[in-house]
## 1
Amino acid sequence: MRKSLRLKLTFVLIVFVFSIILGSILINNIFLGDYYLYDKQKTLIATYTEINTAYTQYDQLIEEGTTDDYSSFGSSSVQSQISNALREIFGRIAENRSVSILLYRNIGYTIDGSQIVANIWPIYSSINSGTTSWTETNNMYSDYINASREAEIINRHSNYIIQRVYVSRLGSDYLYLAGTMDNGDGIMLRASFETIHDSVELSNRFILYISAIMLVAGIFVLLFITQRFTDPITKLSHIAGQMAELNFDTKYEGQSEDEIGELGNSINYLSENLEKTLGELKSANIQLRQELDEKTKIDEMRKEFLSNVSHELKTPIALIQGYAEGLQENINDDEESRQFYCDVIIDEANKMNNLVKKLLDLNRLEFGNNDIEMAHFNVVDVVRSYLANADILLRQKHVTLNFNTEPEVYVWADEYMVEEIFNNYLSNALNHVAGENRIDVDIEKRGDVVRITVFNTGEKIPEEDIPMIWDKFYKVDKARTREYGGSGVGLSIVKASMELLGQNYGVENRADGVAFWFELDAKNS
């Protein structure tokens, strides 16, 4: 089943976001309380440092004589001597850091029941806002004194101690920093320390609600975003599939300059190169197949040639050997018999000689070793001259010759090759003429070609044999062919010669015989 990359990517991103959310909740539960406590301590220590520095500067003013006593720090007479800047510093610190500030002096101790309680004189308090009522200030001090013995110590320093104190009067936890400043005056800082557990739960619920909303919205956003990424990949996958099916027409048309764009350009380049290489490979394959076919054909021709030559030469060689042995053994003493034996040997040797000559001519034609000498000549003269030389053969067979032609018909061809073609046609007609013993030779101009036809009366060629009569050593009637000494090579020479000349040739059965024809170029004649 096909799995969508888009859905996979969306799922992975959703799992990743969900993991972040769960990680955030887990971190909230484990570390937020400690961080909250650390932050509160840091605030108290920073406040202590800043107040101590500012108060030390005020102490220097006293030493310089600006005021000689700060035992009545809360009174109006003393307040007038305090720098307004110092009050603003303390007030801003208390407000910005949500810290209650109490500066005091120990002025003695009183016995309250069974407890000894220290008495203090407030020097400055951010709680009373400058009023003369120190009730709340004393409450801040009393709350710490009453609960500090059982309070948890968070941090201890040479000048101060930080404790987590539960104030029963207020029903809440506070962090107290209690200590002394550089000049020996006391300092007490208090910061609210609400339970962090409720805050963590509230924070976790808020994160879950927001995360759920964002997750739902994020799914649609992710689907849209991943579609923008996966669409080009899908197109590239389709193009690759088309390339696998050897279809190189589809191209990537993206315009992006990122990695996907580079991949698309690379696939286009690969497609073009594959198409080009495949074309070259097909051409090379066709050429190789043709060469293999040609080699196979040549091998078959060689085997057939050797077989046919062996067959054709076997009979005359056997006859020559037999009659020669007869002469050697003086089988017949009379002169007439010896002469007959010699005539047979000479006749068979001539047949072998003619066969070898024809095979050499055919080999030269088939393998392109024959140089064609094109000439413009009167083909009527060539045919008439050859018929005159063959007159004795025509009269020996009592053949009636009809030569039908115009006085002059000029053609472009190799004169020797044309004579050889006509010789094979006429020899074939003489060997097969029968019935009326008539041979008709026609030279007819047909537009840009001249057709030369040699017809003989006699038996027709079976239709199934007509395509094969041009093959080497093929004989329709082997017994009769042997009778007149035919080799089955003459028509193969005609075929090879006509293919070199690039003209048409053929044979057709007529009502009373067979007609062989060939055509020659007669342009501009």
## 2
Amino acid sequence: MTVWLLMTISLPAKTVSPLMSKIFGHVTDNQGRSIAGVVVSDGYRCVTTNRNGIYRLNRHTGAKFVFYTNPKGYEPDSKGFFQPLSKDKQEYNFVLGQHTGNDTHFRLLLITDPQVRSEKSYNRFTAETVPAMKQTIAGSTLPVVGWCLGDEVHEQCAWLENGMHSEITNLGIPFFSVIGNHDYFKVEGSDKDTAPRTADEYEKYWGPTWYSFNKGDVHFIALNNVKYTSGISYDHLGNIDAEQLAWMKEDLRHVDKSKLIIVGYHIPMSHTTGANSDDETPVVPTGRDEMLKLLAAYPNRLLMAGHTHYMRHSTIAQPIKTEERIHAAACGAFWWTTANSDGTPNGYSVYEIDGNKIVNNWYRTVNVPDAYKDHPRDFQIRLHHGDATFGGQYGTCHFGNKTPLPSGYVVANIWNWDPQWKVTVTEDNGAPVTMTQGTKSKPKVCHDAWAPGYLIGVRHRAPAHFRAYCQHLFVYKLKNPNARVTVTATDRYGNSYTQSAFTTDFTDLKVDGADFKP
């Protein structure tokens, strides 16, 4: 329980030796009052402040930071929650964020993979994504917390790190970050890139690469599951090392079992070997099952990832059943256009959380079509005819085939879909009929036609990187090919979205003309 003591603590002066391993400090609120029960960590061990707000910690030899986990009722402070450790300093004091009282009802603004890679793509982020986020924040009647799940910049663009940190953390809300593979940078002078990449530049701005924070009845845990073995090679399935698992176990000792636990990291951990179908033999990432076992005592839990530049909902069945939400990239297909390679528009997700439950969720498209400028939240579906050919032979959606679907099919791309959604179609205002998920239809439809048609067929990008296996396509064979069609998608929270307009060209994908290069 939090205790306020109206007193100031003066710690005794110490003669500091570089060999000393103990660190200590004083945690207060912004009124100078000592706060008890605050969890403080060096990333390896966790302790709590005593009734006088004092903590003492035996510093681990591998520790780079000391940081605290804000208690419930105090605004998370994404800039002030950590301090770099110095070999000749022992005392590290912290001032908590504003006391918010009951903060159990709020929104999470979640983006991933902005991955700016030049001044041009940085300018697009500031001109397109930042204003949209500001609009979401300004229009929210609830407090908002931000989280980016990695790849703020491209690995060859360390000079953009400062600007991205400034843009993201100066939106007027707490905005945390998870490290991604592109946030690691090659070691200068490394012979043939044999030295593993370093996170030093990222840590200079964002701090520890694993940590936790609280908001209301939600405990957020950030993990670093990127493991480089050289300047070019990393574990593409994700890797949670033993040190993080030991820290997470200690961190969770201080978390009530009733909380909602949201674990965020960059690389999805429900992936199969290639992540391009539903049929591949799963390969379990290192440390994943051990991490999940730590969550077994928390019935409310959710995993969140980025990295893939597509939207996907996955379920891990063992050792415990857990949802993993893989989020589409803010940069889409690496800024070449306005969409990801599965057709999901450039954008970000918004989650509304009340107590220990997610009570609403939607995807906010950044470059919305003109028809949705005044209500961008309603844009959740794109339609095209199954026999439409986009970008020549690359504009196909029939899995394993070079030809479009037969005439009379409707294809709907519903990017924020999960298995609890209901998707129906009507012909000429008739009775609604359930659409078939493309991955389960015959013929099988599991590649978007529109976005890859532009990226591969027009912009000549490599198919291996610009055509994603897509689980959120739905198909229906019309009884009347000339019927007026309306597709309705209703999510698990009761929100219904409709679409009747068919996309027939690449207008919405073009940025400054077809020759824009990021």
